[in-house]
């Protein structure tokens, strides 16, 4: 790929981050042979299954990596690192054979039988789930197993280096610990030669020259000697993070706001080892509908499976792209807006294939997808009015509104019609509540009824929208927002919606006349 230095001036956060990585490589030592390959990393704790945050971190890092390649013309790779040598701390709630797992607490995830019975270990099972998850979205990455790296010697030199700087590393971490943990802390966690448990014990001796850790089993009082290299131990996680950065030469890694202090500590350890911490990017955490931090234990979040039941993955990419350093609420109501923001950006991408457009990053430059001539919000309103239980019902209206448009010519629209039916069935229908019009609203609706009866049935959306404004202005609403609120609440049974003129054009003037006549037949509420 040819370098395009002009991309440094693009005001989009992936390119701004990519410029930082380019500056890091330019300031660093030149490789003895060939070009430096920029290394981007994402981390994964395989004691649980991949989730919506996993998607967000890998997607965002991918966008920065691609921006770097376009900007510099240099090669880059993304490594998805699984900390599968970590000890199992507690039995997850969402797995079978919990009693069996409980017998293996403290052992590395790759040394524990798979409770699902499909893989050699629990770690291998969850690693396979991670890779299937990433593959489903088409991410380009190299998978890395902590167990393989430790046992295969990839970290040996870095581990011996850490052993040489053992006390310096301890001094970085100790001030952050409570008295009890401080008394036992070492960056090294030896694997017990008899039980296989990842031990958190103080080191009696650290002898890098002999490749040896000497420690005491607190339960038996037995003294053990464990090799530093070859998978005989692993590093405590903050030290492990620094170890990876140093050993692999990681150039870029994102992390959540909750890990700011850990990033600082790991960066300090990386420097003690003689390395330079990667360029970092701190993203904000998601909130639930009430503005509370999302917690897996509380179950107050939105899962990726739930999002993809109601909207395409591109819309999830849109949600993740927008303002990653600002806290955002992640609940079902944000899905329609994310879909329509994506559709708008996809349309702009046809004429403006530039890096400021989120769709540019979602599609890695350009897309041949024609998008959708109808917004998702409009499809939801249509599904609501016709009580759609099948997308075929919506297509009867779509073909009249946009002649020549078919599921084959517009696959995104076909997918959206299916999603709209699912979203309507699960969220809109249960909350649908019609109210009777007030006297002011009744007069305005009767006026609108008269106007619509005089219109040609093929009137376009913009003409209808202008007439809606004129009708609203003729009646004593505090503002036009109240008039359009009346249309949504009285005619559609919901609090808000898209431009009503577009809905009338899609649903049809005769159908809309029927909605108004039905609404006027309801008993008037108090003015």
Question: Can you characterise this structure?
Answer:
- The structure is a single chain.
- With 527 residues, the protein is an alpha/beta fold.
- Among the domains are: 5-151, HUPs (Rossmann fold, 3-Layer(aba) Sandwich), CATH 3.40.50; 304-427, no CATH class; 439-520, Arc Repressor Mutant, subunit A (Orthogonal Bundle).
- It contains 22 helices and twelve strands.
- The chain has a five-stranded parallel β-sheet with strand order 3-2-1-9-10. Strands 5-6-7 form a three-stranded antiparallel β-sheet, with no helix packed on it. Strands 4-8 form a two-stranded antiparallel ribbon.
- β9 (252-256), α10 and β10 (279-283) form a beta-alpha-beta unit.
- The longest helix is centred in the first third of the chain and has 21 residues, at 52-72.
- The termini are far apart.
- The relative contact order is 0.08.
């Amino acid at each position: 790929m040819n370098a395009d230095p002009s991309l440094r001036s693009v005001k989009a956060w992936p390119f701004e981050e990519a410029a930082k990585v380019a500056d890091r490589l330019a300031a660093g030592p030149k490789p003895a042979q060939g070009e430096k390959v920029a290394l981007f990393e994402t981390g994964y704790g395989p004691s649980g299954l991949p989730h919506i945050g996993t998607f967000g971190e890998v997607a965002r890092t991918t966008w920065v990596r691609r921006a770097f390649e376009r900007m510099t013309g240099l090669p880059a790779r993304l490594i998805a690192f699984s900390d599968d040598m970590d000890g199992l701390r507690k039995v997850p709630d969402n797995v079978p054979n919990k009693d069996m797992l409980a017998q293996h607490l403290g052992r590395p995830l790759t040394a524990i039988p798979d409770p699902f019975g499909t893989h050699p270990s629990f770690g291998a099972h969850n690693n396979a789930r991670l890779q299937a998850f990433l593959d489903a979205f088409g991410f380009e990455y190299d998978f890395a197993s902590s167990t393989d790296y430790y046992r295969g010697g990839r970290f040996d030199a870095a581990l011996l280096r850490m052993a040489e700087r053992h006390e310096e590393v301890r001094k970085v971490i100790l001030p952050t610990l409570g008295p009890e943990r401080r008394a036992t802390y070492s960056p090294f966690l030896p694997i017990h030669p008899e039980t296989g448990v990842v031990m958190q014990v103080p080191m009696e001796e650290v002898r890098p020259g002999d490749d040896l850790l000497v420690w005491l089993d607190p339960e038996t009082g037995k003294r053990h000697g464990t090799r530093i290299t070859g998978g005989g131990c692993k590093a405590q996680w903050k030290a492990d993070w620094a170890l990876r950065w140093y050993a692999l030469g990681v150039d870029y890694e994102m992390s959540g706001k909750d890990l700011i202090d850990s990033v600082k500590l790991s960066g300090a350890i990386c420097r003690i080892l003689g390395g330079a911490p990667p360029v970092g990017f701190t993203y904000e955490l998601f909130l639930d509908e009430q503005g509370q931090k999302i917690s897996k234990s509380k179950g107050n979040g939105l899962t990726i499976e739930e999002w993809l039941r109601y909207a395409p993955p591109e819309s999830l990419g849109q949600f993740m792209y927008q303002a990653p350093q600002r806290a955002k609420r992640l609940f079902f109501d944000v899905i329609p807006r994310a879909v329509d923001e994506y559709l708008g950006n996809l349309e702009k991408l046809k004429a403006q294939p530039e890096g400021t457009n989120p769709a540019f990053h979602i599609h890695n430059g350009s897309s041949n997808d024609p998008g959708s001539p109808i917004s998702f919000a409009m499809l939801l309103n249509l599904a609501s009015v016709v009580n759609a239980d099948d997308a075929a019902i919506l297509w009867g209206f779509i073909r009249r509104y946009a002649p020549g448009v078919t599921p084959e010519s517009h696959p995104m629209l076909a997918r959206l019609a299916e999603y709209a039916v699912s979203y309507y069935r699960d969220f809109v229908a249960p909350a649908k509540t019609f109210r009777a019009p007030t006297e002011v609203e009744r007069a305005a609706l009767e006026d609108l009824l008269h106007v619509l009866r005089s219109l040609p049935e093929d009137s376009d959306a913009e003409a209808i929208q202008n007439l809606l404004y004129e009708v609203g202005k003729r009646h004593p609403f505090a503002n036009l927002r109240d008039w359009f609120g009346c249309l949504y609440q009285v005619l559609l049974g919901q609090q808000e919606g898209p431009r009503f003129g577009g809905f009338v054009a899609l649903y049809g003037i005769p159908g809309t006349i029927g909605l108004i006549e039905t609404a006027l037949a309801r008993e008037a509420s108090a003015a």
